[in-house]
Amino acid sequence: MSEQTVARPAVSTGIPALSRGRGIRLGLKRIGYEVRVYFRVGDQVFFTFLFPVVMLSIFATAFSTSGNVGTNPDGSGGISQGAYFLPGMVAAGILLSGVQNLATDIAMEKSDGTLKRLGGSPLPVISYFLGKMGQVFVTSLAQLALLLVVARVLFSIELPTEPEKWLTFAWLYLLGIVTSAVLGIALSSVPRSGKSATAVVIPIVLVLQFISGVYLMFTMLPEWLQNIASLFPLKWLAQGMRSVFLPESFATLERTGAWDLDVVAVNLLIWCIVGLVLCRVTFRWIRKDS
Question: What's the number of domains the chain is made of?
Answer without folding.
Answer: 1
